[in-house]
Amino acid sequence: MPKDKTDNFLKAIKKYAKEQKTAMHGEVKQLKSERLKEAEEEAKRESQRRIKENLREARSRKTAEFAKKVREGRSELFLQRAAMVDEIFELAARKLVAYTASAEYAAELKDGAKAIAELFEDSDCVIMLNERDLGAAEEIKDLFTGSVEVRADSSIRIGGVRGWCESKGVIADETLDTKLEAQREWFTENSALTMTI
Known about the structure:
Layout: H1 2-99, H2 103-120, E1 125-129, H3 137-141, E2 148-152, E3 160-165, E4 170-175, H4 176-190
Parallel strand pairs: 1-2
Antiparallel strand pairs: 1-3, 3-4
């Protein structure tokens, strides 16, 4: 009997050891599975973080490139618009120069001089004209009650009259050059050439 008891005891120990081994293998397998799952989840989170970071960097880079292209486009558009406006106003200036040969212009020149004469009253003044208009100097002088000196002024490219009264500290400008330039801002705002990018 003692041998049977010993055999049974050994069988029980082996059985218990086998059960423990199986249980331990199961726990190790489960632990490995959990650790692997955690590692996979961590790798997935890290990968998503890096993807988001890369996307953010790419988006930022593309936004900067787009902003640069918009700035360059606006600058180019501004230069083209300015060139168009300059061309239009240069054409208008040429037409106005042609207009200065008309009888209507001669009357307008005298009207401008009358307006300046009324402003200066009896004061001495200097009247400036385009060199082409110096032929009307005597008629213009007759419109003034004070002493008048008439001079050619190369800054008056188109025509008209500009007066200066030193005693009043006033410059009066009735030139077509100034009137045309005053229209530039209005034209730019109302000509559909404004930027809308």
